[in-house]
């Protein structure tokens, strides 16, 4: 026996239609979960399975009657009549949604082929059973002799039982098919109503966006007014500071004026003092001129002294040069005496 194997896996947010209202979506997972297509080689069937932790949130067997519908760029849904619900998947990108929808269509075609093959087998078995039943009746009319007749009769009974079981299964399948059609019709109605609700939600969303834009404009206007008010406050604060500065300057000027008034009271005394100072200054200027004459004389003396000092330096340098020559001769004389003493 074969095992059920995953053939495609993706991640998405899972939703289910509200069973009470059949309008609103109810989140089945708190975050994006793994959603996989599984193939059961034993039953030759396909399922979509998703597990959130330890909870199975999708277990949907795909039938040829199912349809996957894209309701937006990143959202798609399909109705499962057996589970009596509608599943919705929200993907992170439009490419993931397109890939999932293409896989759904591919698996749906495979399920249709599997159903057609199963029906062909049932029809073949039914026809074979009916033919065997007719042949067995003719054999009973001909004779009842030999073990082969008994074997044929036993086989005929077995085939009759298989045909009856097949007929019972066919009726059961017809009943189930009718139930599926009724559920599908209800789900189609719910889907249409959901689509109508989506349009209504879109209109409400558009109205909300317009209202939001209006509120944003009002907020921008209020912010502009607040900015103007803040600027006025800043100007007022600056003016207040300037007024205080001017008051302080006024107080300083008043203090200076008071000081000037006090000084004006002593102007006569200052005038007399000024005249006294002027006469002293004139005397000082006369004394200064005398000193300048003396300084010029002293300067001439200094220049003469500097010239004499320069001449003395020149003479002294000459004497130093002569002395250095004499010292060199004395050194040579000493070296000669030392050499002579060494030779003796």
UniProtKB/TrEMBL annotation:
GO cellular component: cytoplasm; postsynaptic density
Residue span of region Disordered: 115-141
Pfam families cross-referenced by the UniProt entry: WH1
GO function terms (MF aspect): G protein-coupled glutamate receptor binding
Keyword Phosphoprotein: no
Similarity comment text for this entry: Belongs to the Homer family.
Protein name per its UniProtKB record: WH1 domain-containing protein
